[in-house]
Amino acid sequence: MTVHTSVLSAAGFDPVGPVFGTTVMDVGWTGGASCGWRPTYPSRRGPAVALPPRPAGHTAYARALRGGRDTALDRMCRAAGALGADGVVAVRFTEQRLAGRTREFRALGVAVRSRGRQRPGAVFSTELAAPEFVTLLAAGWVPAGIVRGLAVAVRHEDWRTASSLGFLVPNTELAGHTELITHVRAEARRDVAARAAALGADAVLTSGLRSAMWATGAGEDHTDQVAECVVTGTAVARFHPGHPPSSSPTVLPLRSTR
């Protein structure tokens, strides 16, 4: 891990040392998973009408993912606080599947301490490297903490999601997949904004957006499509006078996500 000591020193910070947080979680689908199936309802003007499937959340699975990542981050910040640090920069998250449903979540960063009299009320964290962190300070912003928005949803397999349609009409849009991935991305963005607001932040510098989709068996001759989205970023707040905080955070791109 590269530490830009001279850059930090120019901004009034000294590196304290690397800090690490980890947690091992059992991550599975049991307890709270719900199918995206919607029943058929009678119609007053004709035959029964089947409403399109609605994305439903896998509560327990999402809770385990969120808990593992948040706990690793919290333990890293606690380690920094024990060293007398004010914050952690250049934080990197890793996730590893150990065995079966067991996963390990890790957070690693560089603890830094301010030489000034103004000290934060709590240890902050940011994915920004030292040069970006200093640039952020020079622009009148301070990091409030790393925020990760998470959304998981499941949609019942039907003709709008069946990939087999590609054999009949190649190179065509699968509307069900589009709806599902759009849904989880919107929910993840709302989640990251809410988490930033809870930290008292004014904006979010997004550093990554990761999406995945897969099929899962939900019963005899019954398949669901599952989608997951994680939005990661640093919540930031203005510290220059004359800039009142906004009522809700604005999601700002930090770098291109190609």
Automatic annotation (TrEMBL):
Pfam families per UniProt: YbjQ_1 (PF01906)
Protein's name according to its UniProt entry: Heavy metal-binding domain-containing protein
Database matches in InterPro entries: UPF0145_dom_sf, UPF0145_YbjQ-like
PANTHER family: UPF0145 PROTEIN YBJQ (PTHR34068)
Organism of origin: Actinoplanes oblitus
Gene3D superfamilies: Hypothetical protein apc22750. Chain B
UniProt family annotation: Belongs to the UPF0145 family.
